[in-house]
Every structure is written in C-alpha cells, then in structure tokens.
Amino acid sequence: MLNRRLFLASAARGAASASLFGNELSAGRVPLASESFAQPVYNVKDYGATGSKQDDARPALQQAIDTCGKSGGGTVYVPPGEYTSGQIHLRSGVRLYLEAGATLFASLDGHQYDPPPKSALLIGEALHDIALEGRGTIDGQASYEWRLNNFTDFNIRSNQLLMEATGEPLLRPFPTGFGKETVYPRLVLLLRCQDVRIAGLKFLRSRSWTINPYACKRLVIDGVYVFSSAKEGVWADGIDPDGCQDVHIANSTIETGDDSIVFWSANIWGPALPTENVTVTNCRLSSASSALKFCDGNSNAVRRVTIDNVVITNSNRGLAFMVFDGGVVEDVLISNLSIQTRRFDWFWWGDGEPIHFNIKRRSEIDGVKRDHEPPAGRIRNVSISNVIAHGAGTSGINGHPDSWLENIHLDNVRLFVSHDPAGPYENTRTAIALRQARKFSMRDVQIHWDEPYSTMWRCGLTAEDVEDLRLDNVDAEAAPGSTAAVIELTNANGATLESLRAETIHLAGKATRGVRLLQTDSTISADSDVSQDAIIRK
C-alpha cells in the first residue's frame, strides 16, 4: 500500500501538476520510475464541490472524473471536507483519491442512483486501470429499524424454531424503509473491470454489499477498513468478489454484520463465472454471520484460493464452505488462523461454529422445485492447517448423499468449545461432526471443552458415512458430564486411527469395516451390526 501523498494542485480549473513525493521519501521508499513524473490532478473543489455535507457534490465529482478520463487519466483529488453524492460513474485511467479528513457520504435519496440492481455510490463498467485510494472515508449512512419478523428464511429455519420455542418475540432489524424503499446502493460496484486497486480507505455503513466486483481481473484490495453494524447490518457484506480472477486482499480489517469476505460464482450480473486465483493475507475479520465464506451461491466454481495469516474475532461462523447451486469449490489452502466464534441473534446465518461445510441442492433448503436444477455441487481438495479456534457451536463438516466431500485435511488444529450463557440458545452436542466424506484426514488435532460447561455436550468427534478416514495424533477429551464415547464412527468404510488419545471409541453401522488401530489404546465398543472382524489392531 502506498503511503499518503501530497498533492500540489493549481487553483486553475482542469489539470494541474502534482509532486509525487511526501512521506514515501521520508520513510525511505524510492518511487518507481513511472511515479517520478508529475501526473494530472483534478481537484474537485475546482469543479464546484464545497466540502459541506448539505451540498450536492455529485455534479462536481462526476465532472472532475469525466474530464480526467477524457484527458487520458490522472488523479481526481478530494481534499478534506464532507461531500454528499448520489451515483458516480468511474472512468478508465482515473485514480480517485480521498485525502485524510475527506468523507464521501452516499445520498439517502434513491432518485440520485441508477435503477436497481445497478444502484451504487461508485460504479465502473468495462473499465481498465482504475484506483480508489487515500486515507479518507466513504460512508453509506445505513440505518435500521426493528420489527417483528414477517418472512421465513429457510437457511436459518432451525434458529427460528429454537427462538420460537423460547416464547420470545421474533424481532429483527430491517434497513430503514424496507418494503417501501427500493434503492439500497452498494458502495462500490465494479463490473468487468481490469487492473483495479482499492487501498487505504475506510468504507462504513453500506446499505448493501460494500465492495462487489463481478468478472474483474487483476484486482488488489489493500489496507482498507470496512465496517457495518454487527447488531443490525443485515445484507451489508464486506467484500464480495463474483466471477473474478487474480484477486488479492491484504492488510485489511473488515468488521461487518453480514459476511466479511464472500467468494461468489453466480449469475446475478451475467453468466456464472469462476472465481479463481485468489489470495487473502494479513487480515482481521469479524462478522455476525461468516467471516470467510465460500458462498452457497456458486453455480460454476471457486478455486485456487490461498488464505494465510488471518485473525477472526467475534464472529458467528469462522470458515464457511457452502455450495447450494451445483458449483464446485476446489484447491483451497488455508493456514495460520486464529478463530473466535460465538452465537449471535437468531436471524444471522451461523451457530457459533469455527468451521462449517455444507453441500445442498437449493430445493432441499426451501422446498421449491426448480426446472433444470443442477445436481449437488462438490467440495474437494481443501487443506486447513495451523489453526487455534475457540467457539460455542459444532464444527459441522457435511457432504451430500450424492456428492461426498473429498480430500479435506485438517492439520495442527486446536479446537476449544465452551458454552455461551449469553447466547440466544444452546444446541451443541458434538465438537466436530463429520458426514459424507471420502479421504478425510485429521492430523495433530486437539479437542478441548472449556468452562462454562453445557449439560447438552456429548461427543468430541462423530463421523458418519465416511471412506478412507485417517485420524493421526488426535487428542480428544471426553465431554464433561457425558457418558457417550469420545469418538463415534458410524458406517466407516476404511479408517486408520493412529496414536489416538481418546478414552473411548464407539463403532456403529453395518458398513463399518477395515478400522485399523495403530498405537492406540482406547477402549472400543461396537453395536451388534458391526462385524467382529471390522477392527484391526496393530
């Protein structure tokens, strides 16, 4: 990320030269050769912007951007002040720079935006070489009102039933004017753009997704801060790349109500394209839903993703892998994570779980039959390593009867499960629940139960309908107060348990066979339908 630059703009209207030095030199950074030349700078105050929030800054901003773009590119400079604007159309070759102390407010007047779905404060379509940079702030001015819930979200139907059982009123927030207002703009919407840089800015209180690129190539997001209310900020995601290639998100803090970072491959803006070649590094994330999500809205593919050095705090879900629309998630490497999760209010997706895998067909979620619905999608070739996770919910790792998880590996993971007395409900039975998986492995994994305890806890690990399972150096504690086995395997066809530290293991299901115990002294029990030669001790 470039440090703050000082711009010396002339008072004359139009282009002016600017020196590209400042803090970079004092910090010892040598400018690139391409930066050593003065570039045109267009100060929005030269085009009529006042810097007063009550004034409409849109005409001045748009004129400065248009002039810059038509002149071959340069920097549009927004000096300290408060600017309120409706929809602004970006241009190729334009770098929009908000100085420290400059705040760009999104107008609350829906007539100031393009019609939905292309409503956004900043929009770019089929552009190249664009940048949004600086030390300023972009504020969506979102607000919310609490009402009784009047619709069913089938994705959180189980949460809703648990809350109904408490007898408490099902209150939830809605964006102000919901039901009458039709325009809820994103802060940044980029469609089919190339060579994009977003750096240094603060993005606050978006009324919809904050940054949403579709079919973009070579996108860098570096050193940004994204915020929406963790209590109320429904539908205010952080960063949602959809069908993008070569995406790099780094050095950023994202605290949102809805999902922090979400990888899509959907047909919202055009054909469903793969999101691929993605890196996420050195970030802190917090979400009342999922901190890092491979989205359920995946009709094509999300693949070749690496995530490293990420801290997840105060989130409902840590890592979420979800495929509901027939797509594939594959070739994902995740390492060096600290995760802390808890349960949030009932209307948020999630259950306080650090890790979540789920493959469904969309009709299995909402019961609606669809013509030409694709078969169940796939999740395969995922490695998660070097993780310390504290959570309240079960880490559910679920495939599908028609599409099992394949080649999923957990390595050097420390999982601590505790009860949250302040949570809206409690339904945790198991620390890790695995189902419908092939070639799944856990190596150097520890499962601990932390105070305060719950009387509902039962097992450390359950695995049902699995093939070629490997548990190597897994240390699982018995759930406090539980008489159930620490590990339960049901219909496990081929399992290697080596150097296990679990007091008891229980086997069930007539498909269980070929369970090899190596250097494992656990007490083994089995249901009557398990063959006597299913267990092989060495």
Give a structural overview.
It is a single chain. With 538 residues, the protein is mostly beta strands. The protein contains four helices and 37 strands. The strands form four sheets. The protein has a 27-stranded parallel β-sheet that branches. It has a four-stranded parallel β-sheet with strand order 4-7-12-15. The protein has a four-stranded parallel β-sheet with strand order 20-22-24-26, with no helix packed on it. It is elongated, with a radius of gyration of 26 Å. The termini are far apart. 48% of the residues are buried. The model is unreliable at 1-37 (pLDDT under 50).
Uncertain residue segments: 1-37
| Rg, alpha carbons | 26 Å
Structural class: mainly beta
Could you tell me the mean pLDDT?
92
- N- and C-termini, Cα separation: 56 Å
Quaternary? single chain
User: What is the strand tally?
Assistant: 37
Helix residue percentage: under 10%
Overall geometry: elongated
Largest sheet, strands/sense/barrel: 27 strands, parallel
Instruction: Kindly estimate the percentage of residues that lie in beta strands according to DSSP.
Output: over 45%
Number of helices: 4
